[in-house]
Amino acid sequence: MKRRVVVIAICIIVILLGFSAYFLYADLIFGELGTTSTTTEFSDLAKLAYGTVALGETEYAVTTKDAQSLLNLWEMTQVLASDDTTTEAEIEVMCQSIESAMTEEQLAAIEVLKLDSSTAQDYILSNGTTDTNDLLDEESADSQAVSTVISYLQGILSMETTTP
Description:
By secondary structure, this protein is mainly α. It contains seven helices and no strands. Helix 2 crosses helix 5 and helix 2 (44-54) runs parallel beside helix 7. The protein is elongated. Mean pLDDT is 77; it is low at 28-39.
């Protein structure tokens, strides 16, 4: 009788350990179970884009002198990102080109920013766009980020042409 109870207890423990291992594995693969967090970690491309926009509120803002070259790079990035045949390596090269067009101070300021979908929504809404639903998947978030920084840089350039 005791032996039977011990065997049943061991079987229950093994089953519980199996379920625990399964849920831990699923958590590692699929993220936190049972959470519906609305903040999303961004790709390097999106962080660079939103960081560039966020610099506008700092002493490291993009100057009108640098805005045109950055705008050209971001527009090329947008074209590449919208092409289904573009590889991640090509996008990474564009990110590196954009970074090389920025100052070390600007890049350092972007690095310390805490950018996630919540802060990105603020930048998108301040640019006049009302749809922030596309921030849930990385490709849409990247596309929205690139569009946002292009609009921001165009705004800098338009201010230059209207300023006497």
